């Protein structure tokens, strides 16, 4: 298998794996935030802010995989 | 082996990508994006030096145009402030006040007043740049790493400047060593120092990559569905395609807003982390 074929297989799989990981992270973070809002509706604003920061950090991991895919896409002939 | 060396070369090129190098790539990148008015001008004037110049500095031109629009709007809204605001003044005041309240809830009354001008500029500028990619014949300057790295470097320098002036040079170094207090913490300080320095460098890298990746992803998505809509009707030589991209334009509005918010929010947190610990209260 040459490097081009290997990349054509590895890039989508890698991106998918990163997306699975981020999805699990998101489900935990947002689920907990929703529970917290349900318990304390008056703290809605603070919980939302903290949740968005966390979501941004989690999402970055998939974005790294995405950027890597972009950089190496040109190598697939 | 070849792949690994290629990867290293790509990473080095990406890290050290200057405007000219990125521009030399321009033709290769344009294949993933919808055409904008610079592409149209290029099609019209053909292969001239002006066409090359416009194409190479596409992102910069759009960044300046967007900045001009934002400045013009702010000027128009605040030139003749009246007690009973007009339409434009009302909208701008609402946006600025909402944003100021949001930052105040994180930084606290005293600090927020100093940093709102910088953070507000960041937020509205990034929002306008993201939205210019949704506009017909527009392009997001933030879809190029040059813009986002520049923005993230601004935040990095600003936050470190705040840290240096608020804590003093000694306090700055102490903060980087993890603010040691007890004896054990002093023993581990040399160990913590490189970790904190690395973390400080990782902040602008992750900030810029996040914005770049998200906006590029959004643009590529729009392009993919546009071309899908065009190819779907190409068998009968239709001049227009099916607008498959419409739902994704709505999604793009949402991502534009969220990414601008996340960038500003994380910058705020980075500034907050550099403020002296007593005021922060933890």
Question: What does the model show?
Answer:
- The complex is a heterodimer of chains A (77) and B (282).
- With 77 residues, chain A is mainly alpha-helical.
- Chain A has 2 helices and no strands.
- Chain A has helices spanning 3-39, 44-73.
- The longest helix of chain A has 37 residues, at 3-39.
- The two termini of chain A are 13 Å apart.
- The model of chain A has no long low-confidence stretch (mean pLDDT 88).
- Chain B has one domain.
- Chain B has helices at 2-15, 19-24, 26-30, 37-45, 49-56, 58-78, 87-107, 109-131, 145-176, 183-232, 246-274, 277-280.
- In chain B, helix 6 packs across helix 7, helix 8 runs antiparallel to helix 11 and helix 9 (145-176) runs parallel beside helix 11 (246-274).
- The radius of gyration of chain B is 23 Å and the shape is globular.
- Chain B starts with a helix and ends with a helix.
């Amino acid at each position: 298998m040459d490097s081009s074929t290997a990349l054509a297989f590895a890039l989508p799989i890698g991106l998918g794996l990163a997306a699975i990981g981020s999805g699990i992270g998101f489900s935990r973070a947002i689920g907990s935030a929703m529970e917290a809002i349900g318990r304390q509706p008056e703290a809605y604003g603070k919980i939302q802010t903290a949740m968005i920061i966390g979501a941004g950090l989690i999402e970055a991991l998939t974005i790294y995989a995405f950027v890597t895919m972009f950089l190496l896409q040109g190598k697939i002939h | 082996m070849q792949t690994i060396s290629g990867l290293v070369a790509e990473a080095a090129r990406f890290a050290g990508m200057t405007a000219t190098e990125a521009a030399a790539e321009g033709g290769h990148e344009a294949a993933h994006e919808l055409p904008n008015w610079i592409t149209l001008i290029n099609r019209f004037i053909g292969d001239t030096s002006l066409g090359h110049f416009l194409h190479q500095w596409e992102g910069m031109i759009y960044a300046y145009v967007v900045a001009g629009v934002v400045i013009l709007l702010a000027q128009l809204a605040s030139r003749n402030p009246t007690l009973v605001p007009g339409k434009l003044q009302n909208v701008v005041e609402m946006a600025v006040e909402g944003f100021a309240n949001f930052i105040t809830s994180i930084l606290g009354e005293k600090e927020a007043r100093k940093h709102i001008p910088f953070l507000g500029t960041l937020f509205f500028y990034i929002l306008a740049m993201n939205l210019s990619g949704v506009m017909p014949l527009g392009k997001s300057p933030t879809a190029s790493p040059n813009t986002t790295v520049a923005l993230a470097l601004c935040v990095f320098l600003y936050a470190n400047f705040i840290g240096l002036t608020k804590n003093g040079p000694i306090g700055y170094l102490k903060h980087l060593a993890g603010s040691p207090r007890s004896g054990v913490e002093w023993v581990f300080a040399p160990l913590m120092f490189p970790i904190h320095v690395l973390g400080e460098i990782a902040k602008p890298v992750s900030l810029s990559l996040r914005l770049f990746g998200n906006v590029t992803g959004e643009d590529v998505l729009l392009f993919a569905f546009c071309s899908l809509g065009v190819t779907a009707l190409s068998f009968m030589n239709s001049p227009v395609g099916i607008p498959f991209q419409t739902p994704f334009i709505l999604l793009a509005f949402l991502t534009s807003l969220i990414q601008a918010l996340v960038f500003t929010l994380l910058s705020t947190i980075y500034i907050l982390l550099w403020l002296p610990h007593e005021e922060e209260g933890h």
